[in-house]
Amino acid sequence: MSNSILPLLRPSSLRQGDVVGVVAPAGPVDKHQLEVGLEVIRRMGFEPVLSRNIHARSRFMAGSDKMRAQDIMDMFRDPEVRAIFCARGGYGSNRVLAHLDPDVIRRNAKVVVGSSDITLLLHYLVQKCGLVAFHGPMVAGSFGRAEMKKSQRQFKALLTGDVKARHFCSPRAKVFSKGVAQGKLTGGCLTLLCRSLNTPYEIQTRNRILLIEDVNEPLYRVDGMLWQLKNAGMFKGIRGIVLGEMVNCRSQRKGDGTIENILQDLFPKPKFPILTHCPIGHGKEVWTLPLETSAILDSESKTLELKHCGVKMRA
């Protein structure tokens, strides 16, 4: 399946009291952080249910590949479950993709939210299932680690279809390149975007606004990965870039420079807006953004405006 031949589906919006499944497609889950995050989800008015293997562990992953894939498919097949929230990232989502059934997923389209290593799963849902997927906070890995009051409100408002949630503004963001651009949203964690190259899940960037974020990567590795994307042609035809806070992505020694130095080398004369230090991915606040949804980026006003919330309202 490919969304090039299928109309892109928007999953149904959520309502108070909806059952939401919590899965671990990648790394093993910290029990305390999971409990804290689950309580956040309950306070939003949703009823979380855990996947069968949520506490499993196989080396650096939350159980075997087939176990993690089965948990995802079980949540899609369960008619009581209205959304699927990922517990955390880590590593391993790339290993479950071959075990998923895109036909079943498309027939049972529902909200899926995650980030970090979940980036590859999100792109699989978009490209192989024709389903809008949401790059946003995770139950244990985000809500279980930080208070995220603004993120909680925006997460709930967007997934329930509140039109006010379509407007994002980050006063602390920095303007690297001024401009206004419109395009569909794509992207995610930089490491995973590079990992998608030359695979069936390769990121599609043309005519899109590209989200890029990462965490705990030395600055020279960030430089290397961004140049890998450039050399692969992934910056050709893009409409704009929204760069995350790049948490703990620091220089290792004096004189290594900054993220801005890397961008100056990559884009000496940028012809599109670039906004940096935005709350996507791994920070203390994290936007929930529907991939493949049209948006307008205005870097000077530090705003991102969605055409719609990424969900369709239930009758």
Question: What would you say this structure looks like, in words?
Answer:
The protein is an alpha/beta fold and about 325 residues long. α1 links the parallel β1 and β2. The longest helix is centred in the N-terminal third of the chain and has 13 residues. The mean pLDDT is about 95.
Overall structural class, as computed from helix and strand content, comes to alpha/beta
Q: Low-confidence stretches at least 5 residues in length (pLDDT < 50)?
A: none
Tally of individual helices:
10
Could you say what the CATH topology of the largest domain is called? Answer: Rossmann fold
Question: In CATH, what is the class of the largest domain?
Answer: Alpha Beta
The beta-strand count equals 14
| Number of structural units classed as domains | 2
End-to-end separation in angstroms reads 28 Å
Keywords:
315 residues; eight-stranded mixed sheet; Rossmann fold; Glucose Oxidase, domain 1; alpha/beta; 10 helices
